[in-house]
């Protein structure tokens, strides 16, 4: 059927271009159109748009044409004069790769500099392939706080990558690629196991610590997630009710029905569900109710807006009230300034997380953070230190812990 699809695609493409243009298949699923003269009068973009349009309807395959397949294309355009035809094709190829990253069904015109971008991206992908087997990933843990008692409630596990020769790489730089290559499923399983294993060591008797783990859309798409969570809990001995899975609001809302079913399965294991980056994904109230959600993590952008005076405060107030109305806990993310913390506490938001409390800590530092935090100690905002609010620990841990946290980041 793959061959059939390629033929059907070729037919449609042929129907779109002029007779004087050349159409060819370079190999695999790559086609090339060579156009000149009149065809280009309105610009190559117009041709690209027509080519993309050719993919809007599904392809009917199979003997009776009853199998419907949707296919998408990415287009790279190179124009002008090159010393050789190969170079023109190479540049179009580079632009095509670049176009792909922004999502399918796009075209992009080649510009100089793109080859470096594509090259470094290919290297990134190659390096990522071996990262899991070579133990190059590690986790850091950012403490979260109960805003009423001002004591720590647990941690969020955040992934880092020690890339050979490049130092520590932040998740924003490699998670998207892990998702695109579907490697995130395997890496995500590792994160779950590792986080549960490490956090199990810090559990205290008086009040168990919670552990939050980020899970991406692709992980939620597979049945394996349930196994991965079950295994992580089983091997570590961590109590299910102390584990929270964080899913971004955007993930929650795309494919809502399927997601709701999977979340119910996860809930049945006894774990908790948090909606990450809440407030940015346009979920409707009605929608939210259909998911078994325990925590709303109010996106950092709402907290950072508090400083401007404008609408920030009312938005934060509304989100916290929404949580109260639905009986869902709220956590404010990214608290950096003491005055914001006061305001957030006034709004009766349940939990807080941010550099003001603590930066993400290495596993070892997180361990000592919790073992040294006495049950009577309350977090205190101190404005009198250098870099006020950035060094939230008094006495026992001192600025070193904050510095260690900064290193881990
Ligand atoms: P997130 O889940 O919303 O995590 C919170 C991010 O905010 C973390 O960035 C954290 O370091 C940062 N942060 C915390 N407090 C503050 C603050 O006061 N100010 C500022 N400016 N930032 C603060 P990080 O570690 O770079 O992670 C970024 C994102 O990458 C995460 O956002 C999450 O979406 C994703 N991520 C991290 N680890 C994993 C993972 O293991 N799996 C998956 N699927 N995604 C992950
Ligand atoms: Mg998160
Ligand atoms: Mg977040």
CATH class (first level) name of the largest domain: Alpha Beta
- Tally the helices: 16
Shape: elongated
Which second-level CATH architecture of the largest domain applies? Alpha-Beta Barrel
- The helix content, as a percent range, equals 40-55%
- Radius of gyration of CA atoms, rounded to a whole number: 26 Å
Mean pLDDT value:
89
CATH superfamily membership of the largest domain: EAL domain
The hetero compounds bound to this protein are: ligand C2E, magnesium ion
Count of domains:
2
Distance between the termini: 48 Å
Supply the helix-strand structural class: alpha/beta
Unreliable stretches (pLDDT < 50, length at least 5) are: 385-409
Largest sheet: 8 strands, mixed, barrel
CATH topology of the largest domain: TIM Barrel
Percentage beta strand:
15-25%
Strand order in the largest sheet? 7-8-10-11-12-13-14-15
According to DSSP, the number of beta strands is: 16
Describe the fold and architecture.
The protein is of the alpha/beta class and 409 residues long. It has two domains: 2-111, 2-Layer Sandwich (Alpha-Beta Plaits), CATH 3.30.70; 131-408, TIM Barrel. Helix content is 43%, strand content 20%. The protein contains 16 helices and 16 strands. Strands 7-8-10-11-12-13-14-15 form an eight-stranded mixed beta barrel, surrounded by five helices. Strand 12 (272-278), helix 11 and strand 13 form a beta-alpha-beta unit. Helix 3 (85-101) crosses helix 4 and helix 6 packs parallel to helix 8. Mean pLDDT is 89; it is low at 385-409. One magnesium ion binds at residues 276-277, 297, 333.
